[in-house]
Amino acid sequence: MVQLHDSPSKSPGGNSKLVQSKDGEDATSNYVSSHNSKAKPEHLDSSDDQNWEDYIPEAPDGGYGWVIMVASFFNNFILDGIAYCFGVFLLEYSQYFGSTLAATSLANSLLCGVYLLVGPVVGALVNKFGCRAVGISGSLISASGFLLSSVAPTITVFHFTYGVMGGIGFGLMYLPSIVGVGYYFKKKRGLVVGVSVCGTGIGTLCLAPLAKIILAYYGWRSAHFLIAGLILQGCISSALMRPLIARRPRSTTLTGNGAAGKRVSDDLPRNGHDCNGEVSPKEERMTLISGSQTASGAVKDPYSLRNRQRQISSSSYIAGSRLVAETNSPADNIHGSAFLTGGSPGGPHVSTADLSRPLYRKDIFYSGSVLNVSPVKSRLSLKSYVASIASLPSVQERQSRLKCLNSLPKPMADILAEMLDLSVLKNKGMMVLALANVFGMLGFYIPIIYSSSRAVSLGVSESNAALLLSIVGIFNTAGRVLSGSLSLIPSVSPLLVNNICLALTGLSVLLTPLCQTFALMAVASASYGLFSSTFVSLTPIIMCDLIGLEKLTNGYGLLCLVRGITGIAGPPLEGMLYDWTGDYGATFYTGGAFLFLSAVLHCLLHLRYFKDQTVA
């Protein structure tokens, strides 16, 4: 591991100078002209006093961010609204293909599981190509999958087109929605994330009864054409995820010919780096050389790389707490892998393009307000709210990766290596959290898939059966807004809220077989929708408390894999119980027991034994 140690005093030999052009042009005019020319991404050496932190976009906490929130809301509306109304079509699919309930439910299990399972790969793509391009691609792929599923001749082909293709496309739309909101908001992130994920509940509320009407009048094949058209609207919402540009440069010291130093005005043109990791064609290039301080005593940039070297050690985290080191630089929130572009005698290089890539941000998956991350909340500044620890992978560490990763572009290889790193499971708390998610996801989708068909089997009308899913959507929306608001309160324990709600979710599913009338079924559906909302929204905050912000991306990637695999396996397993017994009771009892067991495992995380650890 390459380590940079704190340097309290300024190094005397690190003054940087802007190299003048051969024809003697003024340094400032050379700066402006190079800005307006098409240039390759700039690389800044670690020995230079370049104000490289100017290349890091800062979240506006508003402005165009509200458009990003609406776009994220609409993507969630499409993704989960379609996935959660599968129960309306379940019996139609089963009758058409002549398949068992378990085999039929596998299609939606694949859809929900695959779009979580591809999370690490999608993260790598977003870091390289950006939220906008990845989201539009996902919309096109999933719409194609639904169109092809409408002509599927067998249930196996249906599994591939509906489940695998649809799941991959949904995954490409889902992650950019999370990343976009995380990049545009800091203080208000908890509330904004809560509002954006309300698209899940609103989508279920609206699409479940609509799907029933379309199914009754046009059949499931025509319904798939209409659903594909709705998915294509995701191209519009994804296109709205406009790049985030670093708009407020700090002044930069210029020296030359021994003259007194002068500073470039803050209103000089800036390069456009976006939250998608793309670099504007007009990116500026500043050629810097390291030299000694001039006789004029030019003022050095206090934010220079040399003067702001940081110790790189994840042991500085106090695990089990949101207590992290406080610093004075927005660059401290960037993963160290963003800084290394290759070894050189002078040390690692800083790539200005990489500094703006979204998944190099340590807090990109943190779903709460970052005000809760600082140890001294009254002294918090948005430039210094996260840890000062950044890990620069050594050459040996990069070489130890799988060869297939090293053959990928660096922004993709770094994120894949980070999100698939199993070393985070050395943390006992993270291991328990992963195991709890295994059982939680085995039972999570049971009410969504089987509530409607169970109601029909008990004599409830098909329109009222579809209404049960709408009730889930209404209360799920309320729960997500409430959990987002709670995350803004520092004194509220996200783990405690999650555990209580998860236990009540399991209890509501366990009691569902006892509900024989529509009114009681509606109460069970409302309880499930309200309490299950925290299981997804509070997990990143809980994970941050366990393993620290530095490892949050790593933990999020592994939980995507865990949830994806178990999400695929859960509904078919419970569906097999119905096929064997002919009774939905066994299905709901098993699903509820899995959720309750997950709540018990989450309770273990309150023990100090699982808290006070560090992740190397």
Label this structure with key terms.
55% helix; 616 residues; 3% strand
How would you describe this structure to a colleague?
The protein has 616 residues and is mainly alpha-helical. The protein is built from 22 helices and six strands. A two-stranded antiparallel ribbon has the order 1-5. A two-stranded antiparallel sheet has the order 2-6. Strand 3 and strand 4 form a beta hairpin. It is globular, with a radius of gyration of 26 Å. The N terminus is likely disordered.
Quaternary structure classification: single chain
In round numbers, the mean pLDDT is 74
The global form is globular
Gyration radius (Cα, Å) is: 26 Å
**Amino-to-carboxy terminus distance:** 11 Å
Strand order of the largest sheet: 1-5
Percent in strands:
under 5%
| Helical segment count | 22
Which regions are unreliable across 5 or more consecutive residues at pLDDT < 50?
1-41, 45-50, 250-328, 341-348, 374-394
Number of strands: 6
Order of H and E elements? EHEHHHHHHHHHEEEEHHHHHHHHHHHH
Structural class: mainly alpha
Helix coverage percent: 40-55%
For the biggest sheet, the summary is: 2 strands, antiparallel
